[in-house]
TrEMBL record:
Its cofactor is FAD. Residues 38-217 form the FAD-binding PCMH-type domain. It comes from Micromonospora gifhornensis. This is FAD-linked oxidase. The keyword Transferase does not apply. The keyword Kinase does not apply. Transmembrane segments: none annotated. Keywords: FAD, Flavoprotein, Oxidoreductase. InterPro entries: FAD-bd_oxidored_4_C, FAD-bd_PCMH, FAD-bd_PCMH-like_sf, FAD-bd_PCMH_sub2, FAD-linked_Oxase-like_C, FAD-linked_OxidoTrans_Type4, Oxid_FAD_bind_N, Vanillyl_alc_oxidase_C-sub2.
Length: 466
């Protein structure tokens, strides 16, 4: 009864086309890209086109005590966008307008469903650049990027999403519309509510507009590849690069499992005999060649077996493309390792201080051997942000148990090394227990106080983060 009243209210507010109830369609909105995470079936998927329509959805759900799960492109890797049974899914994909690009203030104002690559292309026409570039940039939305505080390959030099979010418009659980932040170069009025919503994973409000800072387009970059005999040695090179004050515009690590997986997924001539590759780039204009030579020298001193520069822009782009294929390639690797649809991936994401990267990588290799599970490691090495990808047989309880044990051991090691349980994918469903361990009981109470102040009925993306 309540469900049919809710649907009537939603249709009246949004029109029938933006209110989807076909069971096949509903199943398509159940989950994000995280494997092995719980999900439910929504009672309805809404596709509002404006802030007013988002507020109408949130108010209608609140009237009937129904949870609301905000979703962008559902490329998330922590289950944060997964629906719960009976929820209203609020998909932002119809809110995809770039509202303003201001080259003087170097800002853009966008609706949340704008895809990262679309914003990047639009601002490039003005000679400007929006740096945060998650591997999913061709499909993930700015709203999702903000709600997860997404990172990417160039973040090692230019910073992650939060550095570029100047202001937000947010629909609160009450249906009221909050504006945070500014569009000026400076501004310190009041608490920094913008940062509170960045990374809040849809649990505190629905982001309906984002004002982002832009930079002038960077100079073309030069890229090198360094081949190492162990992941730990590559980690040591990263620490030395930082210690020497170098600022690469990209510093990514791929281990042998990933090189093999990518080569099988799309043959590109990668060195599949290498234990680890570091990809590094310098975009310092006239100094780039000098900077690249310094990066090469540090890698050699740290034990690289071979260091070579990409011969041209096409080769450099191919290397970056190889790195971007890591996720689908590992999905195929898992499927090939356990055929018949049994291959599963537990995708981890943690960050440690750069000086502890070698210890983390050596530790992951030890944990893989002890738990007898294949673990491939890839990630934004320059940020100390690694993705150990654990391959399991989803239909073998023993394999799942070993995979989960490895996951917990890696989390434990990361925290012991002074790290954090998630560098960029977010807490979602995967890391709730580890967030609580990381922030402790006082931190949990402060999180709960903020959540209940903003969402007293607990209807916004329930079960995520805390
Ligand atoms: C191949 C691949 C590569 C990836 N590479 C990276 C990477 O390099 N760096 C990285 O950080 N992540 C990466 N990811 C993870 C993912 O793409 C990011 O987390 C991305 O920011 C999610 O955006 P989305 O639009 O898909 O959001 P979704 O997955 O739909 O949602 C993510 C979270 O944001 C919330 N949300 C979405 N929109 C809103 C809104 N308007 N208001 C409030 N809450 C909202 C959801 O409720 C959910 O909690 C990758 C994923 C894939 C599949």
């Amino acid at each position: 009864m309540a469900a049919s009243l809710l649907l009537d209210d939603l249709r009246a507010a949004l029109g029938p086309d933006a209110v989807l109830t076909d069971p096949d369609l509903l199943r398509g909105y159940e989950r994000d890209e995280a494997d092995l995470c719980a999900s439910g079936t929504p009672v309805v998927v809404t596709r509002p086109r404006s802030t007013e329509e988002v507020a109408a959805v949130v108010r209608a759900a609140g009237r009937y005590g129904v949870p609301v799960v905000p979703q962008g492109a559902r490329t998330g890797l922590a289950g944060a966008a997964n629906a719960v049974d009976g929820a209203v899914v609020l998909s932002t994909t119809a809110m995809d307008a770039i509202l303003e690009i201001d080259p003087v203030s170097r800002i853009a104002v966008v609706q949340p469903g704008v895809v990262n690559a679309a914003l990047t292309a639009a601002v490039a026409e003005h000679g400007l650049w929006y740096p945060p570039d998650p591997g999913s940039w061709e499909s993930s939305t700015i709203g999702g990027n903000v709600a997860t505080n997404a990172g990417g390959m160039c973040c090692v030099k230019y910073g992650v999403t939060t550095e570029y979010v100047l202001g937000l418009e947010v629909v609160l659980a009450s249906g009221e519309v909050l504006r945070t932040g500014r569009r000026t170069a400076k501004g310190v009025a009041g608490y920094d509510l913008t940062r509170l919503f960045v990374g809040s994973e849809g649990t505190l409000g629905v982001i309906t507009e984002v004002t982002v800072a832009l930079r002038p387009a960077p100079a073309a970059s030069l890229t090198l590849v360094a081949v190492f005999g162990s992941t730990g040695a590559a980690g040591e090179a990263v620490a030395r690069i930082a210690a020497q004050g170098l600022s690469p515009s990209l510093l990514e690590l791929l281990d042998r499992t990933h090189l093999v997986a990518i080569e099988a997924y799309r043959p590109m001539g990668l060195r599949t005999d290498a234990e680890a590759l570091l990809l590094a780039a310098a975009d310092t204009g006239p100094r780039a060649a000098e900077d690249l030579a310094e990066l090469a020298a540090v890698c050699t001193a740290a034990g690289a077996e071979e260091v070579y520069a990409a011969t041209d822009a096409a080769e450099a782009a191919a290397l970056l493309q190889a790195r971007r294929l890591a996720h689908p390639a590992m999905e195929k690797y898992a499927a090939d390792t356990y055929p018949g649809g049994n291959g599963g991936l537990i995708i981890d994401d943690l960050a440690v201080p750069r000086g502890a990267l070698a210890a983390l990588l050596d530790g992951v290799a030890r944990i893989a051997a002890e738990c007898a599970v294949p673990i491939g490691v890839v990630g934004h090495a320059g940020d100390g942000n690694m993705h150990p990808n654990i391959v399991v047989d989803r239909n073998d309880p023993a394999s799942l148990e070993r995979g989960r044990r490895a996951f917990d051991e890696i989390m434990r090691l990361g925290l012991e090394l002074g790290g954090t349980c998630t560098g960029e994918h977010g807490v979602g469903l995967l890391k709730r227990e580890w967030l609580a361990r990381e922030i402790g009981p006082v931190g949990v109470r402060v999180h709960q106080a903020i959540k209940s102040a903003l969402d007293p009925a607990g209807l916004l993306n329930p079960g995520k983060v805390l």
